[in-house]
Amino acid sequence: MGSRLNLNYAYIAGFLDGDGSLMLQLKLRADSVQGIRFMATICFYQDTRHEHPLQWMQKVLGCGYLSRRRDGMTELRINGYAKVQHVLLLLTPYLRFKKAQAAALISACTLLEKKFIRDMKPTELQKLVDLMFEIKAQNYKSKSAISKNDVLKRLGLTP
Questions:
Q1: Which pTM was predicted?
Q2: All domains of the chain, ordered by start, with CATH?
Q3: How many beta carbons lie within 10 A of that of residue 118, not counting itself?
Q4: Residue 159, number of CB atoms within 10 A of its CB
Q5: Over the stretch 1-57, which tens digit does the pLDDT of each residue have?
Q6: What is d(CA 80, CA 76) in angstroms, rounded to the nearest whole number?
Q7: What are the helix (H) ranges across 1-147?
């Protein structure tokens, strides 16, 4: 049974390498003291007519949610530091092209699981920002509405 699971994870990792993305985003939040939060996401994309593999992946991984977009695509999204970290640890041995991104996102999730943003030292916040932009730089659509300098300002890391 163990080798079967490894084949499943290898397939899912290959799908992530080709038709998936890893993201660490900064979200504005009115309901938090800082007014921001980091969101870690793994996302798989597939034409809605062929969404069955996404359903299978959701079942194998035991997490995530499916959403159908208006453009005919379906997404399997996995959010949350613990879930994202767990899934990436399962898939990393089989990744070929997103291994560096996965390592960066695992590092960010590890840090974010340990402390609230308000309790982080400036060096830890700086590390999160660096990891966020390292991940973004390797994404296909890496143009961001927010610059690294803007993020640093929002976190109070600039004079």
A1: 0.88
A2: 2-154 (3.10.28.10)
A3: 8
A4: 3
A5: 445 558 999 999 999 999 899 999 988 766 666 678 899 999 999 999 999 999 999
A6: 14
A7: 2-19, 52-61, 81-91, 99-114, 122-137
